[in-house]
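JOB MANIFEST
job_type = single_chain_structure
chain_count = 1
residues = 437
[input]
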Amino acid sequence: MSAYKFDSRTKTWIANETEVSNSSATQDIIRYLRWAGTAMIVISAIGFMLQGHADLLPAYRYWLGLAFTFLLCLGGLICAYGLKETTGARIFFALGVAFLPVQVSQVSAMLYNFSQGDLALQLPYSWLQFEQVQPSLIAIDLAISAVLLVLVSYAGFSMLARRQVKMLMIAMLLGNGYLLLPIRDGIGIPLMIVCLFFILRAIEHRLRQDSAMQLYEGLAARVLISLPLLILVGRSVLHPVSLVLSVVLAAIVAVIGIIDIKRYTDSSLVVVGQWFGTFATLLAWLLVSNNWDDFIPTHYGLLLPMVLLLFVLSAFVEYYPTAYRGIGACLAFGLMAGALFNEQAFAPLLALATGVLLSLIGLRQREKTPFFCGHLCFLGGILFYCRYAIDAYQHAPWLSSIGLGLLVLLAASYLEKRQQIILRKVDAYWDELKSWD
């Protein structure tokens, strides 16, 4: 039966509703089958990597993973040239590209254990240990992985995003190059993660400018180039987590949750990401301060940077930036008041500086809370220094009285001359404050 039928009344061909409905149902079934097949392959591969080869030698693990990658590519070739069906070919080759970083990470484990010898950090997971692998076998595995990485990645990206193959290949080779480095120390790994994250972030920003990369195929290609970074992060947390790594991971969560997520969605996920990013930022500072307690002896040194972080975050968050600045201003005022009452070192100068900064921020953002908190901090610093004037008055009361009398007379004369201007400015000042948040 044809998908169209001729309408003799209108002399036109119209769609056969039954055929269209059947075609739509068939497409849904095909889509579900593809999702199910992909999920089965991924889950099976993960199961193999986690527990399915406990009795296998390290070298065999790599070769079985390699055979699995070849099977995926073979499935793609069958779909492309045998069945003449491109969607299935793209799925097979995308899965093949996805498992390439797994192969590279296994070669990296071989290189690390061979280069470090007895000094290599051995994890309590037998499936991650590659001991007693011959150098010749490592060289062969490395060469095969390099060739396979270039060929399969090029084929997969050509099917997913032909116009951006060069950029995608650069990102994939760079990410796997980082993954291949035999580094596991607490400083080298965080530096690698930071460098790779910002490089991939810049590449992702360029790729998103291409409208074709917004399609499902382009999205899959963009996800594939991030897999080496995800494996690098996952591998690093299996080792004892250092302070630097904790701060780096928290900073990455903050950048993604506060800045990057706004580029991808306008939904409520932006708010969720913002709170996660804020929590990660504050947690990073708490981790630093907890390990530097010898350099941060009081709670003032702990909370003042937190105030600064709240003001910095307010410049990037999408929701409630006024609340960030308001909480930061109130916290700063409380800290300055406590420091002045406890007569902490440099408390008056710090109160004056904090007052000026908060007042300027409130004036620029047209917000009352930072503005008044800044005025109160500045006034607290002034009052702290007023005690020196009181001491001077006690030592020479007659001289102080003369000076105070002169100031009062001058103030009266000034008000008499400019009272109308002053009243207008005061009224304008209050009207302006009423319009602020």
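[summary]
Residues 397-434 form the longest helix (38 residues).
Strands lie at 4-7, 12-15.
exit_status = 0
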